[in-house]
Amino acid sequence: MHSNKLTIYRKFEEIYDVDQFVKSLDGVVKVVKGLPDDVSIRDFAVVKVPNRVSDDHIAEQIKPVFKTNSNIRLATFFPSVNMRKTTKISASDSVACLAMFGTLQLQPEVNEVVDSMIERLRTLSRKSNGQFIAVDLRVEILEKKGCHGSSSAGTKSCFSAQEIAIFLRKMGFDKDTTIYLTQPRWDESLDVLKDIFPKTYTKVRHFPLVSPFYCFPVSLSKSFFTSENFFRKA
Question: How high is the pLDDT of residue 168?
Answer without folding.
Answer: 92
